[in-house]
Structure formats: structure tokens, C-alpha cells
Amino acid sequence: MFTTLLKSPIPFFSSFNSTQNPSKTQKGNHSFNKNSKFSVSKTHRNGPIKMPTPPWMKGPLLLQPDEVLNASKPTTKRSSNNNSKAPEKALFGKQSGVRGKKVMKKIIRDVEKLQGNGALDDTQIGKFEEFEIGNWLEEIGSDGEVKKFDRKMPWVREEEKVVFRRMKKEKVLTQAEIILDNDLLERLRKKATRMRKWVKVMKAGVTQDVVDEIRLAWGNNELVMLKFGVPLCRNMDRASEIVEMKTGGLVVWCKKDILVVYRGQNHWLTSNGQRVFNNLASDNNTTMSPEKSNASTWGRSLNGEDRDENNQPVVGSLYERETDRLLDGLGPRFIDWWMRKPLPVDADLLPEVVPGFKPPTRLSPPKTRPKLTDEELTNLRKLAHPLPFHFVLGRNRNLQGLANSILKLWEKSLIAKIAIKWGVQNTDNEQMANELKDLTGGVLLLRNKFLIIFYRGKDFLPQGVANSVMEREMALRRCQLIEEGARVKVAETFQVANESLAKTSTVGTLAEFQDIQTKYGVLEKENNELEIQIEAQKENLERELRNQERKLAILNGKIEKSAKKLAKLNSSWQTAEPDLDLETITEEERECLRKIGLKLSSCLVLGRRGVFNGVIEGVHQHWKHREVVKVITMQRAFLRVIYTAKMLVAESGGILVSVEKLKEGHAIIIYRGKNYRRPSKLMTDHLLTKREALQRSIELQRIGSLKFFAYQRRQAILDLKLKLAKLEEQGVASPQG
């Protein structure tokens, strides 16, 4: 029995070590075997084995070989597949180091490995069914019914979304890359990167002066660097086109707002010393490498360019072609356009005066107002934002040619969009907009220093429709004349033989209507207009009079309310009675004290609160260290300054020395007296506190302002009543006249 009791520590010791790190366990077992004291005899396989004993045992411990646990051999069975994870770890193990979507992806991979590994084949009983967690989660409601979740679990993969990647824009070869050889182009670009002098292109663009400067620089160097300012620096592709078109050179290098232009090989001097520049796009085709020429032709054939009915290649996108079709026939294009194509019409090249030009005829549809609402104005502005510019303008006056082109454009488009040229001196967008509005009669949607947008208006009539309306009116007049001629002919037929034609009645005829209109129509119209004007003025004056009386009543109510608050604050304080037994000082003492007080650097400043208990406390604090105190007040009226000085003397018990005018206000100098004794309580109870003094100051200011505005309202009411009396006199006198 004793042997069996001592047999248990050995397995306990081995099991304890088996929970530790496997590497450490193996090392411990090796050290145990190497120790001679606790070594197990291997010679006697069938005999008892001597085991280590605790200190309290005196005799040896002998055990049979089958009762001894061999710690040199590992008790745990390792899996044949070292890379495969345990099922429970794959299902319930934590994923460290990642978060969010990465964790879900790792969990999904582990579950997939688990399903494909076959480690759980023994646990599957019966027929294998697909494991779908989302279909087996159930919820028992309050009524006892079983409800299934239709949501997908987080690890269930969704169907792969079809993503259409944006196609990369094919690189368009420049003229330099098409025409020049690769070696020459590489040499020119390396040389361009080392250039440090450039020609500045200002707001006006590539003008003739810039072109002359470029050609002058080409006489000494084959490359010229250009640095562009706004607005061309925003669209360097367009800047390259303008430079190549105007100078005849080739742009070989571009970076940010800098272009380097190559003069070409066909550049020489004439006998007179004048420089000649040929068009490189046409003359330098001989220098094009055959590889690039073949590549360009093959590229054009493979791209499948659109062709028109005449089998000619279509240039530009559909947007550009439609805009060009819209602007065809309106005028010459502006080739220095700084934005993307299409090119707008240059309004400065249109004629200043158009013979026979007149504003268009306008006629609103029935039950329609020509004025735009705010919502319509907003929608039109949104509609005009993506539209291209139709015209470019740099002239302030004489815009009849532009107005004529705008009227032609309005027959196809609702909106005319005009850009203002950069770099043109003394441009006035307000003057441009006003003149165009007078000439066209359109509605101004937007105007600033960059653009002007006009809407043709609801009452705009195209030229064809206006001609149809005029023809219809002429036809109606002809019908009236025909009816009048037929009536006269019938009257002549049925007239009495002895009665002259002159005595024939014209009752109900067109002539009678025209006579009445000529005799009385103008007079009645004038009288009616005068009466309408008088009534409208009276109505406006009466409305204004009621408004002024209402405002005056509101002001009177505020004045009463403020007066009550002020009376309540005034009743909470009272001034001290003046001391009849005052101490007197001589004139010499007064002059000496005045000079001392003016030289004092420390002073007591009175603000908007006036005199309150804190001011009296400050006066006594000054008198603690000196005999004179200087009080500075910002009051402008001298009577108010004298009243403040007397109040300070009465409350403090001092002697008034003088009141002096300074830059910052008035200085009140007060002497404490020879018999001065510091009071036990510096702050008096019969004066206002600091907060109450501020409220009193605010109420005084408020009631003064309200009384001033009430006086203004009373004067306005009197003026309105006088005007109403005059209008009534005019209304009485007009019928008599």
C-alpha cells in the first residue's frame, strides 16, 4: 500500500511537465536521465527498479518496470500532417495581427481547409448534407412560431461584382514625335531640359509680338523656351496647337507651364538678311522616319476613324462637330481660344454697325408672363453651365454685329454664352451686358468679369414666326378695308334719288369708329391716366401713413416700458445731503493743489456707469496714500461735468479744487481736507451698485434713442398728411378742369 502511494508523484510530475513548452520538457527529461543519482537501471530488465525517494523516507523505493512511467518518450501522438491545423483550432482559434475583412478572409480559408481535409469524417453521421449556417438559424417569436433568418452571414461570400475598369486614354502622338527622328528628338529634349531663358507669354496669348520674339531668338538658337501665364497655362495642349500654328515650329518638350519650340531644319537667311520660316508640318515630312510613318498610318487604319458620306475622315468628337454646326455662319472663329475646342466666334471681328438693324419683334404666348421666376432662373443657369462658349468679346461698344449673330443663334439655341477676353485693357462687362440687352431684348442670366450669359426670353419670336405674324395682321387689315368698301357700295345702291351722298349716315361703320378714336380717344386716355396716377399715389401714401403710425405706436410702448425700468432704478438710490460746515482753502493752496493734481500719474476714470458706490471707494483708496485725487470723466457737456464734480464732493466729503480740460476728457481734482478721517465703511449703501449703475446707463441710452426715432416718425407722419391733402385738392380740381 505504501508503494502504491508513492507511485502517484511520478505520473503527477510527468503530467505537470507535459503542459509546458515541448522543447523545455524534452530538455528536462534528458537532464533527468543523465543524473546518476536518479538513473534507472537498464541491466535488470525483469527485476525491480530503484526509484528516487523523498527526504523523509529511510528505505529504498523499488518498483516493477511496468509500473514506471518512461519520461524520455513523448506521450502525445503527433499528427502525420504537420501543416494541418486541429479542427477545434480552425473553428474556434483566434486570428491575431489583422482586423476587419482580413480576419473574415482567414476564417473562411480555415473553414474551407477543414471541409477539404477530412478531419471530421468520423464525426459525420448519416448522409452528408451541405453546411449552411444562414438557413439553420432560427428565432422563436412571442407567439411561439419559428422564424428563419434570411440574412447572409458575414463569412458567406457574395457573388463577384462585375467591375468595368476605365480604359486608359491612348496617347496621341505629337507633331514632333511623328515628324522628327528618335535620335534628333532625344537630343533636342536633353538640350531643352538645360535651358534657363524663356519668352514670357502674357494674358493676351500668343500675339504677333511674341511670334516676332520667337523668330528673332531662332536666329541664334534652334530651340526657344516659352513660359505661359493664365489662361493658356491651364490648357497646354491648346497652347501647343496655337504655337505650332502661328510660328510654324514644333513643340519638342513640355513641362507644367513651359513649352520648348524647335525651329526645324528648313530655316535659312535670304540675301537681304530676312529670315524665312517654312511650315514644318508640310515640309518636314521628308525627315520623318519610315517606322513612324508606317506606325501613324497603321494606327489610323486600326482605330477605325469615322468617315462621312464622301468617305472623308471626321475630325473631332460629336460634341465638337455639333457645336461647329451650330456656330457655322455666325462669324470668324477665335483661334487664340484658351479652352478646349470647339472654337467660339470672335465678336471683335464682327461689324460694329449693321445697316437696317432693329430689335426683334416680341410677343408672349397667351396667359404667359415674360418675366422669369426664381426657379426658372436657377434652372436656366444650371442648364447654361455645361454649354460651350459661343462668342468671345473684348469690345465695350458698337455691338450691333454681335447682336445680329446672337439673334441668329437664338433661333437654334435658348442661351447665348459669351466669354470676355483676357489681357484686353478697359473691358467693362456691365456696359457690354447693358448694350446687348438693349439691342437684343434678351434676359441677362449671369454676368461677371469672365463671362456673360443671355436667355432669349419667353416672348422671343424667330424671324420666320415674326414674319408670319406680320403677314396675318396685314391680312386682317385688308379684310377690314374690303368689308368697308362693300358696305359703301351697298349704301350707294339703296340711297334715295333726291338725297345727296354726303348726307348718308355713317353709323356703325369703320369710319365712325376711326373718327371717335381720333376725337375723344386721346382725351379720355389722358384723363384716365391722370386719375389712375392720382389714385395710385393716394393709395401708396395712405399705406405709408398707416405703416408709420404703427411704428410710432410700437416706439411709444417701448418708451413707456423703458421709463418704468428707469424710474425703478432711480428710486433705489439717493444723493447725500451737502455738508454745510465746509472747510475752506486759500487761493495759494488751491493753485498748489491744482498743480499737484495735474502732475499725478495715477487717476480714477469714470465710465458710462457714472458715480456709484465703487467710485467713492476708489476715491478713499486714493486718499489713503495722497491728499489729492484726480478723477477723469469722458462727458462732453460741461454742465454734466460740474454736476458730477458736485456729486463726488457731496458723497466723499472732500473739497473741489478745480475742473480742467484735458485731451482725454475733463479732470476733476478733489482735496481730502486737513481734518480728513478714513471712514470705517468705504462703500455707501444709498448709491447704486456697479451692476445697477450699468443697467441705468443702458436704459438712459435706450430711452434717448427711442425718443429720437419717435420724433422722426412724427415728422414723417406730418409730411405724409400734407401730401395727402395736396393730392385730394388735385383730385377735386381735375374734374372741373
Automatic annotation (TrEMBL):
Cellular component terms per the entry's GO annotation: chloroplast; ribonucleoprotein complex
CRM domain residues: 178-274, 370-467, 583-683
Pfam families for the chain: CRS1_YhbY
Major location category of this protein: plastid
GO MF annotation list: mRNA binding
Coiled coil location: 513-565
Protein name: CRM domain-containing protein
InterPro entries reported for this sequence: CRS1/CFM2/CFM3 (IPR045278), RNA-binding_CRM (IPR001890), YhbY-like_sf (IPR035920)
Keywords recorded for this protein, A-Z: Chloroplast, Coiled coil, mRNA processing, mRNA splicing, Plastid, Repeat, Ribonucleoprotein, RNA-binding, Transit peptide
Comp. bias (Low complexity): 28-41
Chain residue ranges for the region called Disordered: 13-55, 284-312
Keyword Transmembrane attached: no
Record carries keyword DNA-binding: no
Subcellular location: Plastid, Chloroplast
GO biological process, one term: Group II intron splicing
Annotated organism of origin: Gossypium mustelinum (Cotton)
Bias (Polar residues) ranges: 14-26, 284-300
